[in-house]
Amino acid sequence: MPLETSSEINLVDNSPKPAILVNRIDIIDIIRGVALLGILLLNIPYFAMEDSFTDPWSQDTGNVNFWVHAVNIIFFEGKMRALFSMVFGAGILLFTMNKEKAGKSATWLFYKRMIWLTLFGLAHAHLLLWLGDILYFYGVIGMIAFLFRKMKPKYLAMGVPIVAIIGFVANTLFMQNIRSKYLEYKEVITLQETGAELAEKELAALEAWKEVQKEFIPDKDQVKINTALMKGSYSEVASYIRPKAIDGQFKYLIFSIWDMLALMLLGMALYKWGFLTLAWTDAQYRKTMWIGYGVGLPLVTFSFIYNTIYFPNVEAGLAYIETHSINWVALIYDFQRILIMMAHVALVMILYKNGVFTRLMDSLRAVGQTAFTNYIMHTVICSLVFFGYGLNQFAEWEYYQLYLLVAGIWMFQLLLSPIWLKKYLFGPLEWLWRCLTYGRMQPFVRK
């Protein structure tokens, strides 16, 4: 998650000028580094695996893929994305606070920054062809979050439970819409099997379900087509990725705003409360960790088991919605991931405050300071390994094997990032973003 955390202080005149790494809060860089590396755990299957890749082993407890997937779901899925968004929200305050304390407006500078981030996101999705881009969304949603930066933390934090409930309602309505179309489709199929002639209404129901399948539930033939495209040339990969990216960035944008916005506001609240600045005592961080893991882990474990039983594949999921109009277990999701995410952060705080893993912390700090560059590096490496115009390894690896590559990328970035920052002030993309934001060339090489 590529937001710099340097507090920027103008020492010469009243025009907005960037300071060079002044008052950088190391622990926020470390947390950003954790989030950056952690998000690759969840992203890499979507670089490398075909649609519905979990189906063959989703209930096979004797398969190593099942257990690797279980660890990902229980400890990381949703938590790393939440952590990204939370640190981004704190970064908004860090970017603006010193300017505003000095009586200077940070508004236009911040919006320029977000506009450029949005454009970077569009390029990331449509030129580098990463369907899971977050830069575009953070640029757009960051402009909204900025408006709430002066709100009291207790009100900022209220966004999480409100959005969790709204999200559950929205997802339920979405599922009920799918369910309605599926039930109508089943009725038409039953009618068709009797030999009855289908009226216009029945034909429309068949067409509506076909559209749902095409967009959300590809059948085996469509999966083969999609896989062939991903193993093809750059233009073939683009023909598969770009339409989906456009849908996500525009057609479904309204559904993506609320979760990220609530988590950015939570990050602002936690920064103001001192949770993200090491202002809490060890006892407070330990209490947060034990509550987070003590409540969150049983909840997510129950949810994982429930989904393994009732939603192991598309067919089972469709059978479930035939008889269930609401999946109440889905209510658990947002609460368990926030609890576990908070516990993860509290654990990092405790380790850092007690001087544990100092070399690793130094490397994580460097990864966090160059997070924009490292995030794009994930895409470059993974696309060149898996996509057809690279090494063409798409749909060739076992799920668990992907994490050997993840470990390699982690080691590379943990070693390279601190070495880079010994010579340069910023990562190359951080520097470019900074130049574009301020409209002038910025220092790059350390003196």
From TrEMBL:
Transmembrane segments: 30-49, 69-95, 116-149, 155-174, 252-271, 291-310, 331-352, 372-390, 402-421
Keyword field: Membrane, Transmembrane, Transmembrane helix
InterPro entries associated with the record: Bact_Transport_Assoc, DUF418
Lineage: superkingdom: Bacteria
Annotated ranges, domain DUF418: 270-439
Name used for this protein in its record: DUF418 domain-containing protein
Organism whose genome encodes this protein: Mariniradius saccharolyticus AK6
